[in-house]
Amino acid sequence: MISFLDDGPADAGTTLLLAHGAGAPMDSDWMNAVSAQLAGKGVRTLRFEFGYMAARRSGQRKPPPRAEVLLDEYRQAVAAAATGGRLLIGGKSLGGRVASMVADELFRTGKIAGLVCLGYPFHPPGQPDKLRTAHLAAMECPTLICQGERDPFGIREEVASYKLAGTIAVQWLPDGDHDLKPRKASGRTLADNLDEATGRVAAWR
Q: How many domains does the chain fold into?
């Protein structure tokens, strides 16, 4: 049975089903901060954990499996998510990548309205030739990717050279890393970048 952390107004017009990244749980400080900011902007979030991460709560140190192994778990979460309005799916890093791999089938069947990726892992750090973008070239589902400009999983200059479908919008966060966090010298804070990212999500149609 899938357990959700439910944040934001129960009567929200938009709900975002949000999956965690590879190494941190659904109630990490980062996920808490994003959910709180979205709630403050009128977006409800439903957070859930993949089985390997949930098992860690009982002491089982399971590594994250390949993204393809998690597709059915994401489909099950969508089926279990009770929403009265528009449903978006997405996640942080790995969670967003898994969501992107099921987005088109769910969009075509009317189950979701769009996809939100927060820090998409375009390639493993230091391995820019190992791209994870093939399915993004023909994406039919409306997609918003919020990406830090210096994210080692895909910096701005690299992503500009990728073939991405016209349905994909990329919101660049100034000086952000994979957590969207800027360096102190930039004059910005993580809160600034999260506010910009969540504002874009809330306004996105």
A: 1
**pLDDT tens track for 49-81:** 999 999 998 888 888 999 999 999 999 999 999
Tell me the β-bridge partners of 136: none
* Average pLDDT value for residue range 31-39: 97
* pLDDT at 194 (0 to 100): 98
Q: How far is CA 20 from CA 31, 34, 42, 49, in A?
A: 7, 11, 21, 7
CATH number, domain of 80, equals 3.40.50.1820
- Beta strand ranges found along 49-150 (DSSP E): 86-92, 114-118, 143-148
pLDDT in tens, 124-139: 999 999 999 999 999 9
CB neighbourhood size of 140 (10 A): 12
C-alpha–C-alpha distance, residues 169 and 134, integer Å:
16
Reported in sequence order, the residue ranges of 94-191 that DSSP labels E, i.e. its strands, are 114-118, 143-148, 168-173
Give the residue numbers spanning the domain of 163.
Answer: 5-203
Does this model's pTM top 0.85? My answer is yes
Structure tokens, 80: 């279990």
Beta-strand runs (E) in the chain:
5-7, 14-19, 44-48, 86-92, 114-118, 143-148, 168-173
Angle at 108 between CA 158 and CA 34, to 5 degrees: 55
Instruction: Say what percent of the chain tops pLDDT 90.
Output: 91
